[in-house]
Known about the structure:
The chain has a single domain (about 5-240), classed as FMN-linked oxidoreductases (TIM Barrel), CATH 3.20.20.390.
Amino acid sequence: MNIYSSLSENKKQFAVLVDPDKYNGKQLIDLTGLARKSMVSYFLVGGSLLSEDNLDTTIKIIKDNCEIPVIIFPGDIMQINENADAILLLSLISGRNPELLIGKHVIAAPYLKRSRLEILPTGYILVDSGKPTTASYMSSSLPIPNDKDDIAVSTAMAGEMLGLKLIYMDGGSGAMNPIPLSMIEKVKENISVPLVVGGGIRDPHTAAERFKAGADVIVVGNAIETENSLLEKIAEIVFSF
Ligand code: 1GP
């Protein structure tokens, strides 16, 4: 399966973010069952900071229990894993940390070239969500202020012009506030690559509003860890579009 083609299909899609530190085997099996039933589009697996050595097992359990594609959402080059289907090759274009714009990519490139992972070059934009998140802290970068739509638009446009194939606007996991609707609308109007939106989405209404504003893919992590029935409710929203 070519994941980029499926991301570009111009239909609303829903990705569940799995932080390998947060799920045990039984919880993962329950989650994959629910995700299969609800026709979740993708699993994103990874985290800005992983403390346990669970990434490999997490990916294997997901792959053993469903056909849903697994995309690595790496917090670090240590999170490259051959058992996944694809990897977001993140360039943190909202920040000015050279390591996360090109440095880590140079180190990862030979490994990625040898792997069979599909590479998804992604312009990753962190947006201030009301308080520092693990992503903003660990990346030593300043997120875009959430009332500065123009900065977000110019950043996303620059990312697309540089050849990045996806734009991912993220408030960071556990974000206090989700990405503002006006920012999503304006970014969407100005890019033609798929737009992924995540961070702080905790209910179906918030997800629906972000789809309406122009998000092609919604990512939800934290809220599903707390209440996995939310997965079915958000998945229903996807089918209403
Ligand atoms: C974080 O966009 C993802 O990078 C998901 O965020 O965990 O807040 O849903 P949440």
